[in-house]
Amino acid sequence: MIRFARILLVSGIAFCLCGPAAAEELVSALSDEEIEIRSDFVGSRIVVFGAITKQGGISQDPNYEVAVVIEGPRSDVIARKKDRRLGIWLNSESRRFYNVPSYYSVHLSENYSAAASERQLQQFRLGLHNLNFYRSVYNSKDIAFADALIELRREQGMFAELPDAVGFLAPNVFRTTFHLPSVIPVGTYRVSVYLFRDEVLVGAQVQNLKIAKGGFSDQIAKFADSQGLAYGLAVLVIAIATGWLAGVIFRRN
Amino acid sequence: MQLYLPIAEMTVNMFLFLAMGGAVGFLSGMFGIGGGFLLTPLLIFSGISPAVAVATVTPQIVASSTSAAISYWRRKLIDEKMTLFLLAGGVFGSGLGVVVFSALRSVGQLDLIISIAYVTFLGLIGGLMLKESLGALRSVRKEGKLRSAAGTHHNWIHGLPLKVRFRRSKLYVSLIPVVVLGFGIGFLGTVLGIGVGFIMIPALIYLLRVPTNVVIGTSLGYIMVTMGVATVLHSVANKSVDVLLAVLLMIGGVIGAQFGAQVGQALRGEQLRALLALLVLAVGVRFLLDLVLPPDQLYSLAIVGAP
Fold first, then answer.
1. Which helix (H) or strand (E) holds A28?
2. Highest-confidence segment of B54-63, B74-83, B251-260
3. Which of A145, B73, B139, B161 matches a 20 to 30 Å C-alpha distance to B250?
4. Which residues on neighbouring strands pair with residue A100, listed in sequence order?
5. Residue numbers in B near A153 (CB within 8 A)
């Protein structure tokens, strides 16, 4: 797949060099377009490549900045807080956040000048604290819940924000590697690449990345989901058979 | 070796869970218990979500109780009639249990209820067993023989109407306490993911005066069926039974039980009961500490309705 991406990339560059582009052209590719979660899944690595082309060639010191985002399917999340009541700790207050990505990781290039770019990051909703669910809360109590959500997801490896993670292989070619944890939920992910020059967005590209259970894992999950009764009975038969077999072996001993 | 669990949706080390099943199987072979009350918290502690842990322990209990029940069946130590009446209540108890389990999970108080129930039942049963076994140990040392566990006096339960004769248990008692007991234990077992043999056995001995030799077989038969029903109901209602995790636990459990049974046979009954009581109390205390000590993480997340 990586080789395929390279071919894609190279052909993309070739195409753009000949094409009648007026400004920058951004081409990017993923090392994989689909990730299969099989029985031996321990997480995965996904590489995003990109190239920038411009008619007349790019200048010596182009000052490009790149942000690459991988975002998982969204769902609502309830954050609950434990409080001490009658001497025991129990869930008391909760907040519901809407459309929270199950996975969100943003990689920025190393020359991304943080201070000047803060406004841009906000504008394009880049970064954990610029996500819609976070920006929709205002009072300090709600913000504490939203902060806790981000912190917990970060600990699980589901949220990440890496400032120095996109490397330039050449002034106009960049690459970044994402590590997806083994607990990653299935679904269609969006991989977005943003290209800035001198603090202005000059190009963007969005691609889909499909993460699905594959092989045996997929068959079991589908069976359990679509035919709960048959699945339950099958598990029961396995349990009784194992117990019976054990009973037979025990008796022989 | 790493294995992705399709329902728990996480990758685990196979050997860790085989070993976990083995360790709990060892104890269950040694003490003659299902071990669900140990296995469920162990699974939760190792990162499996409480819902999957509780649901997946049910088929593991089916497997372990089946293997033991077969040998009791051969020796005619199961009172089938009593098992059936207990089950009549138990099926409804399990059904209500699954509904309550789903409701508690959506309200976000499942963990709390499980913890409080564990503290209550483990503390109560562990305390009573410890008291009884220490008493037995003392009297063995003093008189060189064991007092009988249950008295022969009739209690208020024997005054209830709707009496039925149970031949194998040599009993003539009302149906009401039998069905109610079955219902309550079916309910608790489903909500808590434990086989509740450790509640069932004392209840049959002390409340209904079932002869001790028939109690274990009857209780095993009951546990096997209710946990079987719970396995199916959890699969249908919560879709939270992970078959791969269950198989790992079963294999480990079956092997562990073999070694446990050998050690168990080398120890005396009252020593075993005292050790089991300490174990039960220790698990209860651990849950109590979780409830009263400030938690490391105040916040928790729950995903609702994927779009």
1. strand A25-30
2. B54-63
3. B73
4. A75
5. 301
B266 strand-pairing partners: none
Q: Which residue has the tokens 């330039």?
A: A168
Q: Cβ A39–B4 below 8 Å, yes or no?
A: yes
Contact assessment for residue B63 and residue B255, using Cβ atoms and an 8 Å cutoff: no
| Cα angle: B36, vertex B45, B50; to 5 degrees | 65
Instruction: Find out whether A90 and A167 touch, Cβ atoms under 8 Å.
Output: no
**A86–B contact, CB cutoff 8 A:** no
Q: How far apart, in Å, do the first and last CA atoms of chain A sit? A: 54
For B180-208, write each residue's pLDDT tens digit. Answer: 988 988 888 778 766 667 778 777 877 77
Q: Is A22 on the interface with B (CB under 8 A)?
A: no
Please list, in sequence order, all residues whose beta carbon lies within 8 angstroms of the beta carbon of residue A138, skipping any fewer than 6 positions away: none
Helical H segments across B7-49, by residue range: 14-31, 36-45
Distance, in Å, from the CA atom of B207 to the CA atom of B201, rounded to the nearest integer, reads 10
Q: What is the pTM of this model?
A: 0.76
According to DSSP, the residues that pair with B10 across neighbouring strands are B5
